[in-house]
């Protein structure tokens, strides 16, 4: 299964760490949405959309990328890292995928070191995350997703 994961990961690189762990499980191209002005996703069997969480949702760059380049009907999955969990982080990106008729295969999420905004004043939260356990869970999620798709 050939997979593209389109992502945005800055600040501490939390999301990139998770994606690198997943990419070790198979034929996966990691595509930084800020570095690629255009990409053809039609040749991939599956597309992942990944981001740290900013103000309760995926980074706007990933959202714009998905709206512009996600092919109609392409199976998708989501990956996100966050400082503090709240439900609904993938709602907007899932809506964008559904608008293109893309089946959503699942979501992997975990905590990530966060020093954004007020968290900077206290030295950040979720220090040391994602950790080895988080990365193993990410690999397991991705292996299972690949097995389901055959």
Secondary structure elements and pairings:
Blueprint: E1 3-8, H1 14-23, E2 28-32, E3 46-54, E4 57-58, H2 60-69, E5 76-82, H3 91-99, E6 104-111, H4 132-149
Parallel strand pairs: 1-2, 1-3, 3-5, 5-6
Antiparallel strand pairs: 3-4
Helix pairs in contact: 1-4, 2-3
Tags for this model:
150 residues; alpha/beta; Rossmann fold; 4 helices
How does this structure look, described?
This protein is of the alpha/beta class and 150 residues long. It is 31% helix and 25% strand. It is built from four helices and six strands; from the N terminus they run βαβββαβαβα. The chain has helices spanning 14-23, 60-69, 91-99, 132-149, and strands at residues 3-8, 28-32, 46-54, 57-58, 76-82, 104-111. Strands 1, 2, 3, 4, 5 and 6 form a six-stranded mixed beta sheet that branches. α1 (14-23) links the parallel β1 and β2. α1 packs across α4 (132-149) and α2 runs parallel beside α3.
Gist of the model:
With 150 residues, the chain is of the alpha/beta class. The chain contains four helices and six strands, in the order E-H-E-E-E-H-E-H-E-H. It has one domain (3-149): Rossmann fold (3-Layer(aba) Sandwich), CATH 3.40.50.360.
């Amino acid at each position: 299964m050939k997979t593209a994961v389109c992502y945005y990961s800055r600040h501490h690189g939390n999301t990139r760490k998770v994606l690198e762990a997943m990419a070790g499980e198979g034929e996966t191209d990691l595509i930084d949405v800020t570095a690629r002005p255009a990409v053809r996703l039609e040749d991939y069997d599956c597309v992942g959309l990944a981001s740290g969480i900013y103000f309760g949702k995926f980074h706007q760059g990933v959202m714009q990328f998905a709206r512009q380049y996600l092919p109609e009907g392409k199976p998708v999955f989501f990956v996100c890292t966050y400082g503090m969990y709240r439900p609904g982080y993938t709602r907007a990106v899932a809506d964008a995928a559904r608008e293109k008729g893309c089946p959503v295969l699942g979501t992997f999420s975990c905590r990530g070191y966060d020093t954004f905004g007020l968290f900077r004043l206290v030295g950040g939260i979720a220090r040391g995350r994602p950790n080895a356990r988080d990365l193993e869970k990410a690999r397991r999620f991705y292996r299972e997703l690949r097995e389901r798709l055959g």
